[in-house]
Amino acid sequence: MTTPIKRINQRMPGWAKAVSALVLVLAVFFAGIRLSVLPGLKDLFGTETNDRSGPALLQSIQDMSRYEAASGNFQIVVDLDKDAKFLPDAIRGTRTLYVGAGTVDAYVDLGEVGKDDVMVDDDRTSATLRLPHAALGKPSLDPDRSYAVSKQRGLLDRIGDLFSDNPNSEQAVQKLAVKHIGDAAKESGLTARAEKNTTDMLKGLLHSLGFKEVKVTYGA
């Protein structure tokens, strides 16, 4: 009695058998490399990283008038899910779980202080300064403390990565992490801390110069 497998093999052309055998051999070969079953193959086909970057070029220099008065450290877990409308996630879709860590600085721009914003009495013992409100700088993502926890991709997305110049790009989740960190900084009271630190710094400086009474206010 001929088994179904034998009947299939009898109908299969010779070239199809050769292709099937080649695919099977390659699958076993790469599985052996991935699982380190075949010692030495992983090193043989491994990659070597060489930094051939040219020297950094100085494009411009700017004088800074900002007093960096406070810095906040933030961490956010981004869960970004992209689904196709009419396809299951196993076929088309991505989900990335990403931990983003970064900092936001708060500063007071002393360059905006004009002559009318500084008042000193005749005997130079009392001073009143009016400064602009503290502002937040751009969030800065720390690559050493940010990482992807997990990545799930559909079959079509995996195939697309093979032909992409930038497979598994994390740009979308990084931008989202920066946005969330910036939003958190606005609600953190970081600017209030920056104004307090600026006030303490200026009072200490002016007291060392002989001023007994120093008043610092913030406003437009």
UniProtKB/TrEMBL annotation:
<dbReference type="Pfam" id="PF14014">
    <property type="entry name" value="DUF4230"/>
</dbReference>
<dbReference type="InterPro" id="IPR025324">
    <property type="entry name" value="DUF4230"/>
</dbReference>
<protein>
    <submittedName>
        <fullName>Putative Secreted protein</fullName>
    </submittedName>
</protein>
